[in-house]
Amino acid sequence: MSITRRQHTASILANGSVLITGGYNGSRYLNSAELYNPSTNIWATTGSMNVARQYHRASSLENGLILVTGGYSGSSYLDSAELYNPSTDTWATIGNMNVVRDLHTASILANGKVLITGGYNGSSYLNSAELY
Length: 132
What we know:
This protein has strands spanning 9-12, 18-24, 29-37, 42-46, 57-60, 66-69, 81-85, 90-94, 105-108, 114-117, 129-131. The chain is mostly beta strands. Strand 7 and strand 8 form a beta hairpin. The protein is globular and about 45 Å long. The mean pLDDT is 97.
């Protein structure tokens, strides 16, 4: 990768590439993203997320987009969500979740919706859930 990072996510795209998003590099929280092509063993930077985040979740949707939810920005816990479009290498901010959360789970259901559960909001652990 072009930058060291921890607490990031890795998502497999429809074309077989892997999208790496966010994390923390020991001195700053990251909004950057990179693509890994396993066929060529080459890394490339791609469009950056709108918000720096670690402890977030990334889900590969049926339509080929990547949904990134929640996390921690270094100064606040996040309720924001973004969609990555691999066709255009761009990010779009979408509606916020109902509550701030990091360390949550995001599970793709049979109907294509994403179930977001639990996590931490900066002061307590959560037992709430919501659907995207």
